[in-house]
């Protein structure tokens, strides 16, 4: 039984080997190992040897003519290829960068002095559309109220009265004796707005033989100012809106 089974296996193995030898090798049946239409790869060692570089003298002319004939179509092909190449467009220059806007500059001024707070508020309303910033302020200033011509008294009421009688005897009129304040018992000879008139009165009394003197009278009065910040754009003309005051530069705020 075992021998029979071994014999059957050997026969099956021989059949399989024979089928493989007949059907599994392409070279046996002359079939190509590549797909149709695909060129066969060749090794460099399988390429034919190049022609000799030195040709016989008799064939030199023929070779030159053949080379010229071959060069002509090549040149024509090159020209055609060159002419068919599209021209490269000229580079497009980028547009110029926009000019940055010029920074706005400002002028800072003090307008005034205004006589009253009402005048200040009126000017502030008139300039509200032309200024970037505004502020109001009040300052105290010393103002001349006039020029006083006087004759120092003797220190007592009696001496002042005696001096007054002497002025009357010298025909120096228009005087009175101060009775209160720091200048009590002083002989006042007049208060003048114009300093020239005050000097004329003083010289008249001195010519009569009395030591008259002249002094400036001042008082502290308020002044009202408007500080403004205006853009230098040529459209700010504050003088067309505010009249009767001056201006000077001041620090910006």
From TrEMBL:
Pfam families associated with the record: SPOR
GO molecular function, one term: peptidoglycan binding
Biased segments, Pro residues type: 88-103
Domain SPOR: 145-212
Region Disordered, annotated ranges: 79-107
Protein name from the UniProt record: SPOR domain-containing protein
Protein species of origin: Dyella solisilvae
Lineage, top ranks: Bacteria, Pseudomonadati, Pseudomonadota, Gammaproteobacteria, Lysobacterales
């Amino acid at each position: 039984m075992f021998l029979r089974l071994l014999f059957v296996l050997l026969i099956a193995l021989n059949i399989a080997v024979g089928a493989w030898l007949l059907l599994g090798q392409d070279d046996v049946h002359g079939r190509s190992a590549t797909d149709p239409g695909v060129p066969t790869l060749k090794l460099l060692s399988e390429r034919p040897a190049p022609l000799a570089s030195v040709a016989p003298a008799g064939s030199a002319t023929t070779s030159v003519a053949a080379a010229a004939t071959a060069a002509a179509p090549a040149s024509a092909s090159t020209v055609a290829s060159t002419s068919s190449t599209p021209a490269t467009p000229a580079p497009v220059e980028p547009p110029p960068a926009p000019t940055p806007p010029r920074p706005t500059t400002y002028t800072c001024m003090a307008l005034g002095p205004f006589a009253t707070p009402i005048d200040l508020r009126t000017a502030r309303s008139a300039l509200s559309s032309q200024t970037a910033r505004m502020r109001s302020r009040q300052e105290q200033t010393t103002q001349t109220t006039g020029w006083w011509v006087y004759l120092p008294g003797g220190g007592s009421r009696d001496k002042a009265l005696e001096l007054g009688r002497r002025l009357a005897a010298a025909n120096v009129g228009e005087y009175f004796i101060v009775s209160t304040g720091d200048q009590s018992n002083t002989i006042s000879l007049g208060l003048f707005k114009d300093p020239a008139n005050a000097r004329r009165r003083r010289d008249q009394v001195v010519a009569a033989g009395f030591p008259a003197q002249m002094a400036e009278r001042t008082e502290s009065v308020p002044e009202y100012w408007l500080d403004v910040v205006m853009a230098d754009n040529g459209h700010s003309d504050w003088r067309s809106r505010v009249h009767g005051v001056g201006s000077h530069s001041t620090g910006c705020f």
